Amino acid sequence: MSDLVSLPATTRTRGPLPRALLVGLFIVGLQLVIALMTLVWTPYDPSALAGQRLEAPSLIHLAGTDRLGRDLFTLIMIGARIALTVGCGAILIGGLIGVTIGLAAAFAARTLDDVFAAGLDILIAFPTLLIAMLIVASSDGASLWTATLAIGVANSAIVARLTRILGKRVLALDYITAARISGSSWLSIVFRHVLPNIWPTLMVNLALQFGLAVIAEASLSYLGLGTPPPNASWGRLLQEAQATVQTAPLGAIAPGLALVALVIGINLLADGLRDLSDPARRSA
Amino acid sequence: MIFSYVLRRLIILAVSILVASAVLFLLLRLLPGDPANALVSIGADPEQIEAARRQVGSDLPLPQQFIQFAGGLMRFDFGNSFISRTPVLPEIGARLSVTVPLTLGAFLLAVVLAVPLGIIAAVRKARWYGGLIAVVSQLGIAVPVFWIGILLVTLFAVQLRLLPSGGFPARGWQRPEAAITALILPIVTVALVMAASLIRYVRAATLDVLGSDYLRTARALGASFSEALVRHGIRNGAVPVISILGIELASTLLGAVVVERVFSLPGLGSMLLLGIEQRDYPTVQAVLFISTLLVLLVGFAADILQRLVDPRLRGVIGSRP
């Protein structure tokens, strides 16, 4: 029985959770709670004129009101929901397309793989935002869905390239050859050997892409190509506040702070995940 | 050796441009909405729509449309704008006179800021300012470029009234001092964001150099620290940074597109946004093609430059892992 008592020692050798991970989890968790809360409750009706125009912050309106008299704090809370929705959607789309193409390229014969690699390099040369603009431009009007789809598709090339490189590295290992010889189908090789091996690196990259997707969504909204009102995204709030920055500077600051906090939280989360999966890098 | 590399890289460039134009064509034509819709008003009768489709060329089979489209691009013939009915190309030229100085200015400023700061952040890693630079650059990549623009406008244009909050002189570069004043804040905006991400690469490259054997050998042979760093470190550390610079210049161009909106500058970005709003297909495809072309050319130049800097790479074609 005394053996059992010493068991926790083996878990302790892993060391404490990285601080970046905890801080990141806290920030992202907080915004997630706020985002979920807006589904059932907000301080004010987001489209109601809750006060005078451009009121200064007070106990009644924590972040003041916008140029129409809507409660800015309510709008910022809803912005968290939009940002997280688009971010998750874009990562899901980009991850699914990217991992599928990347694995196909990694498995493909040499010449086909070269074509894949060159094609991905070219696609990556297209800046994300231009692809997103193109998709929004050619669909009928901007919406939450077009923005998500556009950012997801644009990100998929980067995910595909990473998956291809990581996948090829794993596929060159001896135990894959052993699995092939012993008659495993390629599908079982993918799910039993390749994906579990590349998943930690992939997850860190997807987390970083999440942060970039949030910024891309805000940029699209700022340019008028994102989520239409009344479900205002942070980018749109900033665009509207820019006109009244002289009288109500907080409107041009508060949504930006919320956005930057979320992206920093996500990046810290990614850093923490990387440290967790690769303890050797902890000191870096 | 370098010649054959340039030749092969040129072929890749040509293929990339062809693929890029195909992607552009497919995205613009295969997604819902006929480009002819922009020419006719709502409720037009079928004959009017048919006439508009003939004028735009969207009644032809797709492969034929693509040949026409690609042929036009190769001759830099982008057709006439649906809205103004004038050729698109001269308009692009005028817009580039804003976007190119903005992009290059921001890029140069970013490099000038990032290279010394990145090296300091690595060499003085243990000091408080080394750590501060690293932390600030980490924060910098989380900030959208347009928000920096809004904040700078609030501070320097609205509060301090030092610089214009936006706009560009109507006569453009005929009044250079007015044009330059108009571009200062936009350039600083884009440069700050670019510098933040560049500092991280310079710092990482310098840290690699600092831990290298050849630097220790040079020190052991009697070179001073700064001498060893300048003679051996810069050339080695420059290789990964230059390969990043190409991508950075491309994203600087993109940052410029967004920042033009913040400062109401009449550049390529605002032309693209206006084109999208007005469903002006010739304008949209011309701007997207030109900007993609610029991005691909920059990537080409960066690759060639990288070979010239690093002799070890000269023999190897395609350094993909």
From TrEMBL, chain A:
Keywords for this protein: Cell membrane, Membrane, Transmembrane, Transmembrane helix, Transport
PROSITE patterns named among the record's database cross-references: ABC_TM1
Domain ABC transmembrane type-1 residues, every copy: 80-270
Localization in the cell: Cell membrane
Transmembrane regions listed in the UniProt entry: 20-41, 82-108, 115-136, 142-160, 247-270
Gene3D superfamilies assigned: MetI-like
SUPFAM superfamilies cross-referenced by the UniProt entry: MetI-like (SSF161098)
Cellular component terms per the entry's GO annotation: plasma membrane
Domain of life of the organism encoding this protein: Bacteria
InterPro entries in the cross-refs: BP-dependent_transpt_permease, MetI-like, MetI-like_sf
Keyword Cytoplasm among record annotations: no
Annotated membrane topology: Multi-pass membrane protein
Biological process (GO), any one: transmembrane transport
Family annotation (PANTHER family): OLIGOPEPTIDE TRANSPORT SYSTEM PERMEASE PROTEIN APPC, PEPTIDE ABC TRANSPORTER PERMEASE PROTEIN
Similarity comment text for this entry: Belongs to the binding-protein-dependent transport system permease family.
Protein name as it appears in the record: ABC transporter permease
Originating species: Xaviernesmea oryzae
Automatic annotation (TrEMBL), chain B:
InterPro entries xrefs: BPD_transp_1_N, MetI-like, MetI-like_sf
Localization (cell): Cell membrane
GO CC, any one term: plasma membrane
Pfam families noted in UniProt: BPD_transp_1, BPD_transp_1_N
Record-linked CDD domains: TM_PBP2
Residue ranges occupied by any ABC transmembrane type-1 domain in the UniProt entry: 96-302
Transmembrane segments: 12-31, 104-123, 135-158, 178-199, 241-263, 283-305
Keywords: Cell membrane, Membrane, Transmembrane, Transmembrane helix, Transport
Membrane topology field: Multi-pass membrane protein
Classification via PROSITE patterns: ABC_TM1
Principal location class: membrane
Keyword Nuclease: no
Gene3D superfamilies for this protein: MetI-like
Transmembrane listed as a keyword: yes
GO molecular function, one term: dipeptide transmembrane transporter activity
Family: Belongs to the binding-protein-dependent transport system permease family.
PANTHER family cross-referenced by the UniProt entry: DIPEPTIDE TRANSPORT SYSTEM PERMEASE PROTEIN DPPB-RELATED
Name of the protein in its database record: ABC transporter permease
